[in-house]
Amino acid sequence: MTPVLGTLLVIGLTTGCEWTETTPESSSRIQEVLPADPDKARSKKNGADFRAWVDDNGTALQREAATRVLDILGEWDANTGNAYISTDINGGLTPVEDSMASATALAEAFDKWKDSKRGFVSVYDVAGNALIANYEF
Question: How far apart are CA 96 and CA 64, in angstroms?
Fold first, then answer.
């Protein structure tokens, strides 16, 4: 058994092959489905804070779209972050005429609400499917 291990070791050393992760730590991978919510109370508060800010500062389309926001999950700070906006778009009592326009309006409003230098926000419909993934802010 030792000769086989020695041979494998030599082959491994002479091929020069090595797996290297090339995705930077700060980048975001596309999250096609709304991730699990580790802190529901905080996510609800984030959603309420965002809706209040949009009511005071958003465009007409952003204010209308913000009424669809349920929760905002994620982590962000002054430098970077990832946010996941849960909505009732494509569900709820009142249908949304243009779900992509509403999702875009929410992503743009989030960009203005949070002053992070760089990050990503994704917007999800009522079923938890991404309408917009990795909108850069």
Answer: 10
Q: How many helices (H) and strands (E) does the chain have?
A: 4, 4
For the entire predicted model, the pTM comes to: 0.76
Residue owning tokens 């990832």: 82
Which residues have C-beta within 8 Å of that of residue 76, sequence separation ≥ 6?
82, 83, 114, 116, 119
Q: Give the 3-state secondary structure of residue 33.
A: strand
Residue found under tokens 């995705």: 23
- With contact defined as beta carbons under 8 Å apart, do 66 and 109 qualify? yes
Cβ-based neighbours of 62, under 8 Å, separated by 6 or more:
54, 105, 106, 108, 109
Asked if residue 64 lies in contact with residue 85, where contact means CB atoms within 8 angstroms, the answer is no
Output the DSSP codes for 53-94: HHHHH--HHHHHHHTTEEEEEEEE-SS-EEEEEEE-TTSSSS
pLDDT tens, position by position, 122-133: 999 999 999 999
